[in-house]
Design brief:
This protein is an alpha+beta fold. The protein has a domain of 118 residues: 3-Layer(aba) Sandwich (Aminopeptidase), CATH 3.40.630.30. The protein is 27% helix and 27% strand. It has a seven-stranded mixed beta sheet with strand order 1-2-3-4-5-7-6. The protein starts with 15 loop residues before the first strand and ends in a 6-residue tail after the last strand. The relative contact order is 0.15.
């Protein structure tokens, strides 16, 4: 008996669409988030609790992102399932922080994060943003490789986050 798998093979990349968050995807988004956090938590150093847990902002995307003038995007596959996400937070008139870039662990490396980031960069440019910021725990090695490949550079650490890597990227035409 042959079992059909929906998992992408080396030669076949998954098809997905990037959309603004919609409430009908809430539970599936939370499942994707927890799955991704669980996978990353396996690399946490001793003394750090690696168990995934929900963040308050994830429980109400509408009020925590859209109603505050920010954005939140989902990557949806052909089966109408959430396979990735990325949110934004304006921190200054021309600066935006990336929030919650997570991809289903089994689909990393398939271009989902790149497409989400491209969508956010388009959104940011439309708002006049010239600088993107991101931060993540130093043991998120995949994040460091991803952001470096996308043109981010390491910046001064954030004072309120002792085990955090802070990276920035300039976008758009920057006038002197």
């Amino acid at each position: 008996m042959k079992i059909k798998s929906n998992m992408p093979t080396q030669s076949a990349k998954p098809h997905f669409t990037i959309i603004p968050y919609a409430e009908k995807y809430r539970d599936d988004m939370l499942f994707c988030f927890l799955s991704a956090k669980d996978a990353v938590g396996k690399y946490a150093p001793d003394g750090i609790d690696p168990k995934p847990h929900l963040r308050d902002d994830m429980l109400d995307i509408q009020s925590n992102y859209f109603e505050r003038g920010n954005a939140f995007y989902l990557a949806i596959d052909d089966n109408d399932r959430v396979v990735g996400m990325l949110g934004t937070k304006m921190t200054a008139a021309t600066e935006l922080k990336l929030k919650r870039l997570f991809i289903k662990p089994e689909l990393k490396g398939c271009g989902i994060g790149s497409k989400l980031l491209t969508k956010v960069e388009e959104y940011a440019l439309g708002k006049g943003v010239t600088t993107l910021h991101t931060d993540f725990a130093y043991w998120y090695r995949e994040a460091a490789r991803f952001y470096t490949a996308k043109g981010f550079t390491t910046a001064d650490p954030l004072l309120d986050k002792e085990y955090c890597v802070h990276m920035v990227k300039k976008i758009g035409a920057i006038e002197s």
